[in-house]
Amino acid sequence: MNTILQQLEDRRTEARLGGGQKRIDSQHAKGKLTARERVEVLLDEGSFEEFDMFKSHRCTEFDMQQTKFAGDGVVTGWGTINGRLVYLYSQDFTVFGGSLSETHAEKICKIQEMAMRNGAPIIGINDSGGARIQEGVASLAGYADVFQNNILASGVVPQISVIMGPCAGGAVYSPAVTDFIFMVKDSSYMFVTGPDVVKTVTNEVVTAEELGGASTHTKKSSVADAAFENDMEALMEVRRLVDFLPLNNREKAPVRPFFDDVAREESSLDTLIPENPNQPYNMHELIEKIADEGDFYEIQEDFAKNILTGFIRMEGQTVGVVANQPMVLAGCLDIDSSRKGARFVRFCDAFEIPILTLVDVPGFLPGTSQEYGGVIKHGAKLLFAYGEATVPKVTVITRKAYGGAYDVMASKHLRNDFNYAWPTAEIAVMGAKGAVEILYRSELDDKEKIAARVADYEERFQNPFVAAEKGFIDEVIMPRNTRKRVCRAFASLRGKKLENPWKKHDNIPL
Ligand code: HXC
């Protein structure tokens, strides 16, 4: 009996070594953790339960039957993050470069299917040379099976991808389908075709880092949602993110203990808006002052900075925040910010996370590059996302809400529940100067008359009261009371039930 038990221990020890100590050392030398170390860091201590530890490949091409490693290059299983169930897989670069074989894919698919059935997030740690070259098309089929499961799981359970090494070719499409992608600076990259192919086809000379490193994907392409200094930091941030999310689309996000006064007044908010309407202020300040304990988990912090997206808690409950940022492009909506905002709103709606929208938007950014780039279609994404969302929606207009952007930014007209405005709000079709120039074109030479017309327009229309008189603004609130008012609004909406008409699915302008 003892020998049998010992056999199990021996096989486990061997499996835990992956591709062997030499390759583990080489992984460490690159500043990277191994697949198993990553699992240990990510999950609550001692909570990991492994599946398929001994599964190995079935390939006989290239004499592959001679080289088998238990687990076949991916560690899969489940565990907990702060006591809550998650499923995960972690590719082991020490085994055939973490490349994906038929059996490696089967292991990932098993985890994905269990996560969907049991309603818990899937976290994929990617560190792989791509398709297992020796297996050819069987490996491509394996990828497609993983993609298909990613697609089915979308909107059912949260899916988080962490890129901690190479992720190239078609392999990028699994993370691309998931909800969030985190990367590690200087040690991870994602691209469809690598630098060599790029050079051959387009003559461009580019390094892997420039083409698909963390900086590229968080600042330029927006493929990734955040970049971190090292494996440890990235994994700790995944833990923080998971804490904000529900386990699946039938459950609400967890309510965390909070130590902040719901009715906390912030008198500094009364003077947040500068006297000069063209002077910017930092919208972060408002978000942090109304959030529980000032904690804001920002998503896509480095991309389209004219809109802020992320999670806060109010009375311990997760709230998704979308806010124009007057510090960048005066807070205008454009192609990138519309896409960023829309994707975030849709994630929140899919997972029953209430949405708080903070508005200070002078309009859509004008220009040929915007029009040629399809700002109409991209702007429509944000409009569509807000209009279809059935979760509790609360909006606060702090200053500008002009033109179409007023409508788009979670206006009352998009089935919004609470629309508050600060007394400093300006809600109008366009700014006073532009409006007067159109309405009084014949008087344009008379500077004094025009100035008087502008002042009159400002007086009559650049305030929240015209909209409030029509019921488009539910209440004009004191800035200092924003936290209290918004908390109470969300509290009153906890029983909200709203359904869209039956459809197979919508046709959001992609
Ligand atoms: C089998 C692979 C492999 C692969 C790496 N290895 N990639 N084995 N299939 N795709 C093995 C190596 O043979 C080596 O084995 C070990 O992993 C580590 O690889 P190194 O090259 O020594 O490591 P490094 O120098 O760090 O380079 C990493 C790398 C490079 C950049 C990922 O290995 C590489 O370019 N690999 C090929 C990538 C690729 O072209 N993949 C197919 C892409 S097409 P030993 O035994 O020496 O440790 C694709 C399509 C997906 O993925 C389609 C989905 C629809």
Strand percent estimate: 15-25%
CATH architecture of the largest domain: Alpha-Beta Complex
Number of domains: 2
How far is it from the N-terminal to the C-terminal residue, by CA?
62 Å
Alpha-carbon Rg, integer = 26 Å
Query: Structural class, please?
Result: alpha/beta
What is the CATH class designation of the largest domain?
Alpha Beta
Number of distinct helices: 19
List keywords for this structure.
single chain, 510 residues, alpha/beta, 2-enoyl-CoA Hydratase, Chain A, domain 1, 2 domains, seven-stranded mixed beta sheet, 19 helices, binds hexanoyl-coenzyme A
Written account of the structure:
By secondary structure, the chain is of the alpha/beta class. It folds into 2 domains: 22-244, 2-enoyl-CoA Hydratase, Chain A, domain 1; 267-425 and 463-492, 2-enoyl-CoA Hydratase, Chain A, domain 1 (Alpha-Beta Complex). 38% of the residues lie in helices and 17% in strands. It has 19 helices and 17 strands. The chain has helices spanning 2-16, 21-29, 35-42, 102-118, 137-153, 173-177, 195-202, 208-212, 214-220, 231-244, 283-290, 335-350, 368-372, 375-388, 403-408, 432-439, 447-461, 465-469, 482-492, and strands at residues 49-51, 74-81, 84-91, 122-126, 159-163, 166-168, 180-184, 189-191, 226-228, 297-299, 307-314, 317-324, 355-361, 393-402, 418-421, 426-428, 475-476. Strand 14, helix 15 (403-408) and strand 15 (418-421) form a beta-alpha-beta unit. The mean pLDDT is 96. The structure holds hexanoyl-coenzyme A (HXC). Hexanoyl-coenzyme A binds at residues 23, 96-97, 99, 129-133, 140, 143, 166, 168-171. Hexanoyl-coenzyme A (HXC) binds at residues 23, 96-97, 99, 129-133, 140, 143, 166, 168-171.
